[in-house]
Design goal:
The chain is α+β, with helices and mostly antiparallel strands and 153 residues long. The chain contains five helices and seven strands, in the order βααβββαβαββα.
Length: 153
């Protein structure tokens, strides 16, 4: 597996297959965000195929994970966890000591991955998302201090 730091052009050119689903932020939104100096993104490549991508913002000692996406055909293969752990190391090396994220309450696989990595639920945004049925869904806010993450890496 190889980590590749993404530029806006590289992300737009290589990540289309990861963003075919209509869940989460769009690739166009994320590419625009990557043009900002505080945003970083990485893709994970295995045998010349992009299998995952992660996007985060980092300002001073605080980081926010914006999106972690794993290709549908390789989910539950360990790519998401590996990419998350590598990214937390990179964030820690940048001097940040806290990482936040939000996740759909119904996204049990992601919630499990974050909990195993040391993230704890710190809040809730009521009716933040919409389910395909139109029903509201809460967003869970999760946080991690990087000292806790370092023990798992």
């Amino acid at each position: 597996m190889t980590l590749i730091e993404l530029t806006p052009a590289l992300a737009a050119h290589t990540l289309g297959s990861l963003y075919e689903e209509d869940t989460g932020p769009t690739l166009n939104f994320l590419v625009g965000l990557l043009a900002k100096p505080f945003c970083r993104a990485w893709s994970m490549v295995d045998q010349e195929r992009v299998v995952a991508a992660i996007w985060y913002q980092c300002v001073e000692q605080h980081a926010e994970l914006v999106d972690l996406r794993v290709g549908r055909s390789v989910r539950r293969s360990g790519y998401g966890g590996a990419l998350l752990r590598d990214t937390l190391c990179l964030i820690g090396q940048s001097g940040a000591c806290a990482v936040d994220l939000e996740v759909r309450e119904s996204n049990a696989p992601a919630r499990s991955l974050y909990a195993i990595t040391g993230f704890a639920i710190t809040g809730r945004r009521r009716a933040y998302y919409r389910l395909p049925t139109g029903e509201p869904e809460d967003a869970l806010l999760m946080s991690l201090t990087l000292q806790a993450a370092e023990k798992l890496i």
